[in-house]
Amino acid sequence: MYDILIIGGGPAGLTAATYACRAGKTVLVLEKAAFGGQITWSPRVENFPGFVSISGNELGDKLLEQAMEQGAEVELEEVAGLARNGETWTVRCDSGAAFEGRAVILATGAHPRMLGIPREEELVGSGVGYCAVCDGAFYKGKAVAVNGGGNSALQDALLLSESCSKVYLIHRRDSFRGEQKLVDALRARENVEFVLNASVTALLGEEELSGVVVEQEGRTRVIGVEGLFVAIGHRPDLDAFAPWLALDRAGYADAGEDCLTPTEGLFVAGDCRKKAVRQLTTAAADGAVAALAACRWLDR
Ligand code: NAP
After folding, report:
1. Theoretical Cys-Cys bridge with 209: which of 27, 129, 205, 289, CB 3.0 to 4.6 Å?
2. Has domain 128-230 been given CATH number 3.50.50.60?
3. What is the pLDDT of residues 176-230, one digit of tens each?
4. Of 40, 65, 67, 68, nearest to 54 (Cα)?
């Protein structure tokens, strides 16, 4: 039996683990894929305090090392659901493993959103992707497109422009949600073309992607690319925990800055919580707030 079970090993979950351990609690962090979470997909992070520039992978490793140094235990497990028996939570995992704790912090983050256009699912892995860091190397010397206008899309386009012959950055508006510094860097690249006020409406190619159809200001345009990286935001990963939470229309946990949920002993932190700013720093801040709230609840 642990004091606190933390579901999700990204910046929110690992920061929560560090704080809870330092408050003397026993902690288990369950992560389904990679400790560090979404940030492991970022080639360079330049806006986390204390690091001028660090790769997302390295930052994830440091967050993990820090939590374990404070005494956190960690397991690679995909969580299937929660059950409550009196004052005890049981976390059930897909592997069949189960863990018990007195409090639970959900720090499950979010997963990439899909465009929802025909054949998108069919072409995943055959030209359509959601992680340029993971798959960009397959498109060396080829023309690719990135769809989106946030920091993820801008970073993906920058990364791809280093190895691809041409990068089309397709965005539905004419201004970007992502940082101006990244936009300026992209404008300076000769092999990057901005395709603005534009939406991808169809995917071309039989078994492999050969192009995208774009609707741009009332005109239809076909762009020949072998890769399309979709970076249009994320959806929270809270489906398995919905019975215990209030969710907003987009599926985020409708919890305030105090990270409390309507369920006693259950807390929520990071990108899966409804919030105005989703950044590494705000995820880490949530982790601290949720951990201290959980500690107060355990000590009540
Ligand atoms: P985001 O900031 O939510 O941006 C999503 C983009 O996709 C927006 O430009 C949006 O357009 C567009 N979009 C949404 N739905 C669309 C659709 N159906 N069709 C076409 N376009 C669509 O998401 P993100 O870029 O994944 O970033 C998530 C968070 O992580 C952000 O807070 C970001 O700053 C942060 N992040 C930080 C770093 C870092 O290095 N520190 C790196 C990556 C991400 P509109 O602008 O028109 O809404």
Report:
1. 205
2. yes
3. 999 999 999 999 999 999 999 999 999 999 999 999 999 999 999 999 999 999 9
4. 40
Closest among 106, 146, 34 to 262, alpha carbons compared: 106
Tokens 């510094």, residue? 181
Report domain extents, the chain. Answer: 2-112+234-298, 128-230
Question: Could you give the 3-state DSSP secondary structure of residue 141?
Answer: coil
* Alpha-carbon span 204 to 222, nearest angstrom: 9
Architecture of domain 2-112+234-298: 3-Layer(bba) Sandwich (3.50)
How far is it, in rounded angstroms, from Cα 118 to Cα 202? 7
Task: Give the rounded distance of the alpha carbon of 231 from its chain centre.
Answer: 11
Considering all CA atoms of the chain, what is the largest pairwise distance in Å, rounded to the nearest integer? 63
CA-115 nearest atom, ligand 1: 18
DSSP 114: P
Structure tokens given for 20: 């809870």
Residue 108: CB within 6 Å of ligand 1? no
Predicted TM-score (pTM) of the model is 0.77
